[in-house]
Known about the structure:
Layout: H1 3-20, E1 22-25, E2 33-35, E3 39-42, E4 47-50, H2 66-69, E5 76-81, E6 85-92, E7 101-107, E8 110-117, E9 128-131, E10 139-144, E11 151-159, E12 164-165, E13 175-180, H3 182-185, H4 196-204, E14 207-210, H5 221-225, E15 233-237, H6 240-244, H7 249-267, E16 272-276, H8 293-309, E17 314-317, H9 336-350
Parallel strand pairs: 13-14, 13-15, 15-16, 16-17
Antiparallel strand pairs: 1-11, 2-5, 3-4, 5-10, 5-12, 6-9, 6-11, 7-8, 7-10
Helix pairs in contact: 4-9, 7-8
Amino acid sequence: MNKQALIILFLFFTLTLFAQEKRFIKPNDSNIAIDGAFFLIKSDEKIIINRIKPEILNNPATYMHPANANTQSGVRISILTNSSTVSFIFENRNDASCWFSIAGIFKDGKLFKEIILNPKKEKELKPFTVSNPDGKKWARWTVVLPPFYGMNLKGIEIDKDSKLKSAAEKNKKPVYVAIGNSITHGTGQRAGYQTYPYIVAAKKRWNLYNVAVGGSKISWTVGEMLKNKPADFITILWGYNDWNAGFTTHNKIIPNYSKLLELLVKYHPDAKIYCILPTYSKTKTPKRGNLSFDDIKNAEKTVAEEFIKKGYNIKIIDGQKISDTTMLNDKVHFSINGAQKFAENLINKLN
């Protein structure tokens, strides 16, 4: 046998040995924790991670683009292991938006690695792999999914001789549900952990469920969707798209906003609900209709005040008073720094 053949044989056995040293964890393994999505579809092959209940997307009262709804803004997938290497395996979700994005991998709560996702360069997702600098020491690894890149979890790969523990957090955190459009979903930010709801939840030590959808308008169906789901704190920031689309206050905005609040207080009577009136925008006239920006702000305020008079646990936050032009990435969406500042301002109001 010549030298080249020996080298090839050596490499073959080395790669085979390396492959044998890995252990595949099925996506529906009970030790894997997934937070931030209420509607998971689990199987041995994959987990389809839905923030929005698929059934409501067919309701004409739901003003949401399905491709944006099928993304996973701020969803967290965690594993607790003493493996020296961990690989999270995903596949593209064909029915979801896939934009240039960043997924973040956190080690014990601190950002450890960023994964750049560029669908124009790579059609398939490569495994999100990390190596523990502490070797076989136990660590909690968490992937925070991006705002606008839909994916399914296919499984996790760890060292063959390593162990797992349940990654579910022992201390139950209050649940924070963020409702809204692209401002809340994360347009203007690349990573899920850069969005204002994620920052608020991290600072307050809340468990975030971001059910905002880019391009959406006020959809009372979200209130029905949250029936039988936990919610201790709820923020609503909706209205810009309704205004820009030419929706009228009395025929669309007021009835839809009223029904949304009606369902939220019905199903979550003990939750604290914060109605955030539309934030600062450089756009002064809508694409359609003739309402002023103040018209929609006042319409939402009037609705919220009626519920407050009835004794419901609702508070009004003037979005224009906690945002300004320096926070914007474009005419309406926050930049990364703007989202951080808005989150800080919002936390002060929540306190």
